[in-house]
Write a structure and sequence with these properties.
Blueprint lengths: L2 E4 L8 E8 L6 H9 L5 E8 L7 H9 L4 E5 L5 H12 L4 E4 L5 E2 L3 H11 L3 E5 L2 E4 L12 E5 L1 H11 L10 E3 H7 L10 H11 L2 E6 L4 E4 L5 H4 L4 H19 L6 H22 L5 H14 L4 H9 L6 H22 L2
Parallel strand pairs: 2-3, 2-5, 3-4, 7-11, 8-12
Antiparallel strand pairs: 1-9, 5-10, 6-12, 7-10, 9-11
Helix pairs in contact: 5-10, 7-9, 9-10, 10-11, 11-12
């Protein structure tokens, strides 16, 4: 049973490290950095990790670092790719709490202090996150809301992730204890598609998870150069990565969870269900092949034969448009629930 409580004020100025991995995102970096440097109520450390940018944006990173003593610039001589870049920054962080902020995203005003205050008040909490908003070019106006906190035990929160069958944290809205990052070794290179999801669940397996309710905690930028759009766009690849993430979690940390066996089965069912639902929305000249691959994946992951058969005949019966409308309504309801409750 989740616990909801009124937020408490921050005590002192806890040190927070914000790691900003950067590769050819010079046009976005100033916005991200300003959103961090304007944070109040914390002792701030900012680490920009440039992964050998090739578009001249390293100059912008150097200018930003030279303008503020709180900013440390780490320059890679060779491109190390995203996981190694993340981990390089995290390994150098010295704050009590850590945030990984992509150079194209931004923090909402006051987000670091709100998350740090929750950590201070709840020593058993390992991971804190909150509402995130998407934007394209101009940051949305921040609105003030009454702040409250929700906390979950390990089994409760991981159980909610298993029932969803997907990652429920975008990334910039998450803060984690640095000692735990050190213990876990940062992001796992075996999971380039879903290392963040794995890190969140491993943190959850070792303590409680909490959410700041009310105000937006971070802003996620949507654009054509998003890594997920340029490198990890395949739906089947995404689903395969999520399935592998759950498998690794229960293999490595299953003993820490009271209901590991049932949670694992729940995750398989949810991932299979997601594959079937995605099969309805595929389009284009290769739609038939993609639909077949998704249904086969669902079968392998444990979807009932009758369910797979139903989704196979949907196009043949001319019901695709109806299913798409149903899926659109379902995603809209899911978004509203996630925005309000965080799961």
């Amino acid at each position: 049973m989740s616990v909801r409580m009124k937020a408490k004020p921050i005590v002192g100025y806890p040190k927070v490290s914000v790691v900003i991995p950067h590769y050819n995102y010079g046009e976005y970096l100033p916005v991200a950095l300003e959103s961090v440097l304007s944070q109040e109520g914390v002792d701030l450390e900012v680490l920009i990790v440039d992964d050998a940018s090739t578009d001249g944006s390293l100059r912008i990173a150097r200018e930003q670092a030279s303008a503020d003593h709180r900013v440390i610039l780490i320059e890679h001589e060779h491109n190390m790719r995203h996981i190694a870049t993340y981990n390089d920054g995290l390994a150098r962080a010295s704050g009590e709490f850590v945030v990984l902020l992509s150079a194209d995203d931004a923090l909402a005003p006051g987000s670091l202090a709100r998350a740090a205050a929750l950590f201070q008040a709840e020593p058993e909490v390992n991971l804190v996150y909150g509402p995130v908003e998407e934007f394209a070019s101009v940051l949305p106006s921040s609105t003030s809301h009454q702040v409250s906190w929700t906390t979950w035990t390990s089994d409760e929160w991981i159980g909610r992730v298993c029932r969803r069958g997907r990652n429920i944290i975008v990334n910039p809205e998450a803060m984690i204890r640095r000692r735990l990052v050190d213990e876990l070794g940062g992001y796992d290179p075996e999971l380039p598609h879903s290392a963040d999801m794995y890190l969140w669940m491993r943190a959850a397996a070792r303590g409680k998870v909490a959410r700041v309710n009310g105000p937006t905690q971070a802003f996620y930028r949507q654009h054509d150069s998003n890594m997920h759009a340029t490198e990890f766009g395949g739906r089947l690849d995404d689903l395969s990565a999520v399935r592998k993430t759950f498998e690794m979690l229960f293999r490595v940390d299953g003993s820490r969870l009271q209901k590991a066996t049932s949670l694992s089965a729940t995750a398989d069912k949810a991932v299979a269900r997601e594959a079937l639902r995605m099969s309805v929305s595929v389009s284009g000249p290769s739609a038939k092949a993609h639909r077949s691959a998704l249904i086969s994946f669902a079968t392998e992951t444990g979807a009932p034969a009758w369910s797979c058969a139903l989704y196979e005949i949907v196009p043949k019966l001319g019901l695709t448009a109806i299913f798409k409308r149903f899926e659109s309504a379902r995603w809209s309801a899911r978004y509203r629930r996630h925005r309000r409750y965080g799961t």
